[in-house]
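Table S5 (text form). Sequence records supplied for joint modeling of the two-component complex.
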Amino acid sequence: EAGVAQSPRYKIIEKRQSVAFWCNPISGHATLYWYQQILGQGPKLLIQFQNNGVVDDSQLPKDRFSAERLKGVDSTLKIQPAKLEDSAVYLCASSPLAGNYNEQFFGPGTRLTVL
Amino acid sequence: SQQGEEDPQALSIQEGENATMNCSYKTSINNLQWYRQNSGRGLVHLILIRSNEREKHSGRLRVTLDTSKKSSSLLITASRAADTASYFCATDRNYGQNFVFGPGTRLSVLP
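The corresponding structure-token record, covering 226 residues in total, follows.
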């Protein structure tokens, strides 16, 4: 089966610019996650969707980050405007169901550099 | 705040040796998972252990869980150069809806 797809793989922008990332989860997976992974750290959950509804966005900096999952399939994560500290790898993951009884399948990530 | 903390931060061993990584956490959990991340790649799920389990095996991997000490260990036996990666433990948060990852252990297996 095809894995989680993400694009672009790399993005370089200047601070205060906007950027968007795209994720296509594994077919049939109800739950989709976006993580931010700063160099040398573990992934930090930004937002979790169940189908097209938000389950947890408590760690999403809502003043500049937004995400949507229209039709409960693909998802986009946007940063507007970007700051230097947003430089990180943004990982998308999906799982068949929510909760910690299920493993998450990760995409390759998008590496964002903010200059 | 991070729930799990891996120890050591970095580990370097020779091929064929065993590698042991530890994860300590602060609050009660229902489940704990271990993931591997090769450089520049996404994470790959290795194993899940439930709070009522003490030990699980998967191939060359052995995971233990001690809920009284709030700790888990991941043992990789007969390591190979291909095991070179970062290893993360993930503990549940938000009433089990999702996970929090530790900072990871960076394992280098030298040929």
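Note: The CA atoms of residues 86 and 114 of chain A lie 7 Å apart.
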